[in-house]
Amino acid sequence: MARRRWTNDWITALLIGAMAGCAEHPRAMAPPSPAPARLYVSNEGSGDISVLDPLDGRLVGSFPVGKRPRGLRLTPDGRLLYAAVSGSAVSPPGSTVAPPPPDRSADGVVELETETGRVLRTLPAGNDPENLALTPDGLRLVVSNEEDGQASVIDLVSGKRVGTLPTGAEPEGVGCRPDGKAVYVTSEDEGTVTVIDPVALKVLATFKAGQRPRSVVFTSDGRFAFVTAEQSRTVTWVDAQKHAVLGTLRIDGPQIKPMGIALTRDNRTLYVSTGRGGSVVAIDVERFQITATYPNVGQRPWGVAVTSDGHRLFTANGPSNDVSIVDLPSGSLLQRVPAGTHPWGLALFEP
Questions:
Q1: Which residues are CB-contacts of 48 (< 8 A; sequence separation ≥ 6)?
Q2: Mean pLDDT (whole number) for 122-140
Q3: Which is it for the CA torsion 189, 190, 193, 197, positive or negative?
Q4: Which residue in 193, 227, 190 sits closest to 211, CA to CA?
Q5: CA proximity to 258, closest of 289, 212, 297
Q6: 202: helix, strand or coil
Q7: Cα–Cα–Cα angle for 43, 175, 51, rounded to 5 degrees
Q8: Is there a contact between 229 and 193 (Cβ–Cβ < 8 Å)?
Q9: pLDDT digits (tens, 9 = 90+) for 187-228
Q10: In this structure, are residues 225 and 245 in contact, taking their beta carbons and an 8 Å threshold?
Q11: What is the largest distance, in Å, between two alpha-carbon atoms of the chain?
């Protein structure tokens, strides 16, 4: 009988332990907490990424990524960040001084874990990667290779470059249509946009988009795209299904050079940074008309981002090494947050 009592006690203890384990199981199996809201800033001069809290404007950290980081893309869950890095030296337009030889070992796309800032891998992406787009399935990147006049396509499962496609000289802006079936790549020298199928690896179309086109953004339904052009001071409105130009809007003003572009989540308002113009212009998408100008937002604003509620706007200001935060309802400049050297691109994550 003593042996039986011992066995029963052991079974009872085992059952109690199992119940305790079951009580803790939901916590163990709970999904990770969502990533916090963050604004990522690529600093071309200092070779790092600054991380800001977009809600209060605090600089919460920074991490090194390599030489000349410019284009940035986030995964939809905000857990991975892709940054184009380049070993080619900066060579301003019109410069008569020959740049030093490029460091090709520094070219690539860096994949970072945003929670820790840890570099997970550096992906081969051709010579002088400048900007990039991520397909919505998270399987491929399309990267503009500024010096080679082409775009590279990277398979993110294998980590290999699976194709290259001609884009015209000095490709820069890259944007992916929300269905993932078409990627637009701008050619600064030729004033064109090349349309790429990132899966079939073929060029679908090419169309004109002003002089020195810079940036691309698509509406969330994939019906339309908009392209900024620096030298012609224009924004081109495009039928993104037919790849046909629907209209052109000129932005006039002293030293205006349309550069970066951002679209509100409701697809109603475009925001265009004007570079040396020092301002951001708001464009009503439905009427395709300028509705507001926010002057003196920063020194040569380039990268631009807007919150989903349309209340705050951010610009990367290269010469002053900071990021501006603008309150859009009032039009007031809330603050300028120090970043690294020569901030270039922005990537905003909101949970």
A1: 62, 63, 64, 65, 69, 340
A2: 97
A3: negative
A4: 190
A5: 212
A6: strand
A7: 30
A8: no
A9: 999 999 999 999 999 999 999 999 999 999 999 999 999 999
A10: no
A11: 100
- Give the integer Cα–Cα distance in Å for 62 and 139: 27
Q: Helices marked H in the chain — which ranges?
A: 2-29
In angstroms, rounded to a whole number, what is the distance separating the alpha carbons of residues 334 and 246?
Answer: 36
- The two tokens of residue 90 are 């900066």
Sign of the Cα pseudo-torsion (207, 212, 218, 224, in order): negative
Structure-block tokens of residue 106 = 């520094």
Q: What are phi and psi of 65, to 5 degrees?
A: -130, -20
Query: What is the spatial distance between Cα 136 and Cα 112, in angstroms, rounded to a whole number?
Result: 18
Report the amino acid identity of residue 66.
Answer: G
The DSSP element (H or E) to which 336 belongs, if any, is: strand 332-338
Quote the tokens at residue 79: 């857990």
Closest CA to 312 of 248, 265, 252: 265
The answer for residues whose C-beta is within 8 angstroms of residue 283's C-beta and 6 or more apart is 235, 249, 269, 270, 271, 272, 289, 290, 291
Alpha-carbon radius of gyration of the chain: 24
Residues 135-179 have pLDDT tens digits of 999 999 999 999 999 999 999 999 999 999 999 999 999 999 999
pLDDT value, residue 4:
38
Strands (E), 65-170: 72-74, 80-85, 108-113, 118-123, 129-134, 140-145, 150-155, 160-166
Give the strand pairing for 108-113 and 213-218. unpaired
Helices (H), 118-219: none
Could you tell me how far CA 30 lies from the centroid of its own chain? 30
Given strand 269-273, what is the order of strands in its sheet?
261-263, 269-273, 280-284, 289-294
Identify which of 143, 101, 103, 102 has the alpha carbon closest to the alpha carbon of residue 126: 143
